[in-house]
Design a protein that fits this description.
The complex is a heterodimer of chains A (about 450) and B (about 190). Chain A has about 450 residues and is mainly β. In chain A, about 10% of the residues lie in helices and about 45% in strands. In chain A, strands 2, 3, 4, 5, 6 and 7 form a 6-stranded mixed sheet that branches. A 5-stranded antiparallel sheet of chain A has the order 1-31-30-29-28, with no helix packed on it. In chain A, strands 19, 20, 21, 22 and 23 form a 5-stranded antiparallel sheet that branches. In chain A, helix 1 (about 60-70) crosses helix 4 (about 150-165). The longest helix of chain A has 17 residues, at about 150-165. The N and C termini of chain A lie close together (about 10 Å). By secondary structure, chain B is of the alpha+beta class. The radius of gyration of chain B is 16 Å and the shape is globular. The chains are: A mainly beta (about 450), B alpha+beta (about 190). The interface of A and B includes residues 301, 304, 352, 392 and 413 of A.
Chain lengths: ~450, ~190
């Protein structure tokens, strides 16, 4: 496994009005806490890794990051380090005494060691055990560089999570979001940020005095499409996230709306909303040829397309029935191939759909009696489940492993992010230290 | 109040041309106030527009010298049109103000405006951008119908991204569901 070192950035000014800035700041500007966990989270002990021949200490403690990841998922209950010390400090299978761990009801045990192999090069080796069976579940060794310490820890968490839940981990991922700040001169500032899935490494990739909206990740996780009002009208841009100079291109600048861009699963198209015809309609924009195909044609609002993971249908918001509801239209060779069919019937407002990665669930903003909450529709049986209990929720986005939905909400009159497991049992809150945060978009899994 | 506004609408051209004797001050004030507070974005509204509501009638008799757009007593000082939740329908009480702007635009062919559509924060953001555009277009449509020409009118929607009032209750929301009329040229 090769870990690319893509988090080294330098600051650069691109335009006079608009600055795209990068920084290597690793402070937890976005903090995440579990507000409701699962009953019976699985007990696991992650023993502090042995360090050998370390002439330079690692910038972060691998085990602390792993413990934080596992606890944050709501599925695990890691044993506190001070309790672990009283039982033992094994670093490989040969020194584990399973009986000691059974006595304290630990289900799983992760042990390991780190050694330095060069000036900035390290190697981590770890083993995961089922304590009751006394069996090794996995044992892996990885090289990494110091600047990738956090990513390395997230990859270990991903492996543990997958071994113990059967589902891929999504710790080694990023979240894009928009923050709105009011500066000392009472001017609004909008930032498009990305951060690691645990809130660290927050980086601003775009800064504008005018609204920024609707970030959407390309399927390879390398680009973001978004809407910027920097020209006092909405335009769609595509920007390379990890390029040092913030390379970007303007994709559309039609008269009227240019909004709601989302990538096709094959990365070749953006579905988007344009009102150049005089009315908001959904179009497909082919990135290579810049050709547009109109998908909807109706004198109502049609917007917020969501592409099914198989690329064969678009779900969108329309008020053609009088109120905003979700509709689906089939595509064949990226052309509309059916009449739109209404999907939602409960509540008086259903909008901004997002497909789960397996295509089986649809998350949405569900409005009922003046409250706007996140709900999921099971497409197999049309059962709608409301997952949240607030009143101003919006912008649901699935984790790429389908386990959680991140969304924007309001708390104490501030815009904050929150996440809920798809079964509604685990709740997390993500807060920035200042300003309002909104429109989260969870990145795809790392390639 | 509705019948008064209708009357104002009918009499408006006269009012504007002659400098109003009795109607301008009070009716203009009524239209602006609407118990909706002053939109926070003061740049869009002529200063003194709300003062017009409390000024005594004695002031109204004074002829206003200069461009009627600068007359705080004129119905043209109404530069914000408000809407119901999830609706782009223009309310009857706002028709007189829109008609006044249409008249002004038709009489001043070099004048041009931007219609900026906005929504409250509820629901999803891109849907609100579309709703804000429909509001701006509804005002545009009425202006065209009443004599403005397309080249004078520009629309843009900011959806819920640029609220006039912060806050998360109906008192803020009703100030945010709006179309702002801004004169670029006169």
């Amino acid at each position: 496994m090769k870990l690319t070192n893509k988090r080294q950035f330098t600051s650069i000014w691109l335009m006079l009005v608009l600055l795209l800035s990068f920084s290597t700041s690793a402070s937890a500007v976005l903090t995440i806490q579990i507000t409701k966990g699962v009953e019976g989270a699985q007990p696991i002990a992650v023993v502090p890794f042995a360090t050998e021949k370390l002439t330079t200490q690692l910038p972060y403690d691998l085990v602390a990051i792993i413990n934080n990841d596992l606890a944050r998922s709501g599925r695990f209950s890691p044993m506190p380090a001070k309790d672990i010390k009283t039982i033992g400090s094994p670093h490989d299978g040969g020194t584990v005494r399973f009986g000691d761990w059974r006595l304290v009801n630990m289900d799983y045990l992760l042990v390991g060691r780190v050694r330095q192999t060069g000036a900035i090069n390290y190697e981590v080796q770890f083993q995961l055990f089922d304590v009751f069976k006394g069996e090794q579940l996995t044992g892996v060794s990885y090289p990494f560089v110091a600047s990738d310490t956090r990513r390395m820890a997230h990859r270990i968490s991903d492996i543990v999570y997958q071994k113990l839940t059967g589902q891929r981990g999504a710790f080694d991922t990023s979240i894009a979001y928009v923050t709105a700040l009011t500066d000392v001169k009472n001017k609004r500032q909008f930032h498009l940020n990305i951060a690691d899935s645990d809130g660290f490494n927050e980086q601003t990739i775009l800064n504008s005095p005018k609204p920024l909206m609707s970030p959407s990740w390309s399927p390879d996780g390398q680009q973001l499409a978004y809407v910027s009002f920097e020209a006092n009208r909405p335009q769609i841009f595509v920007q390379r996230v990890f390029s040092a100079n913030g390379e970007r291109q303007r994709v559309t600048d039609f008269s009227g709306l240019n909004g709601a861009p989302v990538w096709s699963p094959d990365g070749k198209y953006l579905a988007m909303t344009l009102s150049k015809s005089g009315n908001p309609e959904i179009y497909l924009y082919e990135l290579a040829t810049k050709q547009l195909t109109q998908v909807t044609k109706h004198p109502s609002i049609d917007t917020e397309p969501a592409w099914s993971p198989d690329g064969e249908q678009l779900v969108f918001t329309s008020d053609r029935g009088g109120k905003a509801q979700l509709y689906t239209i089939r595509l064949a060779r990226n052309k509309p191939a059916s009449r739109p069919r209404r999907l939602t019937f409960e509540g008086d407002y259903n909008a901004r759909a997002a497909f789960s990665p397996d295509g089986k669930l649809l998350a949405m903003v569900h409005g009922n009696q003046g409250r706007f909450q996140i709900a999921v529709l099971d497409l197999a049986n049309n059962a709608l489940q409301v997952l949240t209990d607030s009143r101003l929720d919006e912008s649901p986005s699935f984790a790429p492993n389908g386990s959680m939905i991140i969304y924007a909400t309001n708390r104490n009159n501030r815009g904050v992010l929150a996440a809920v497991s798809v079964d509604g049992r685990v709740h997390q809150r993500l807060e920035v230290q200042q300003g309002d945060v909104r429109e989260p978009a969870w990145s795809p899994l790392s390639q | 109040m509705n019948h008064k506004l209708l009357l104002a609408a009918i009499l408006l051209p006269t009012v504007m041309l002659t400098g109003c004797e009795t109607l301008g001050g009070q009716d203009g004030g009524d239209v602006v106030v609407e118990d909706r507070g002053t939109p926070a974005d003061g740049g869009q509204v002529v200063d003194g527009a709300t003062d017009g509501a409390t000024t005594s009638g004695a002031q109204a008799g004074t002829d206003f010298q200069g461009n009627p757009l600068d007359n705080p007593q004129s119905i043209l000082s109404t530069r914000v049109i408000y809407f119901e939740f999830d609706s782009a329908a223009i309310r009857n009480e706002d028709r007189a103000a829109i008609q006044a702007h249409a008249e002004y635009l038709s009489q001043h062919s070099s004048a041009s405006i931007v219609l900026e559509g906005h929504t409250d924060e509820r629901g999803s953001r891109e849907y609100n951008i579309a709703l804000g555009e429909q509001r701006a277009k509804a005002v545009r449509q009425l202006l065209l119908f009443q004599g403005a020409v397309a080249s004078q009118l520009q629309t843009v929607s900011y959806g819920e991204e640029s609220p006039a009032a912060v806050g998360h209750d109906e008192s803020a929301w009703q100030q945010n569901r709006r179309v702002e009329i801004t004169y670029k040229t006169r």
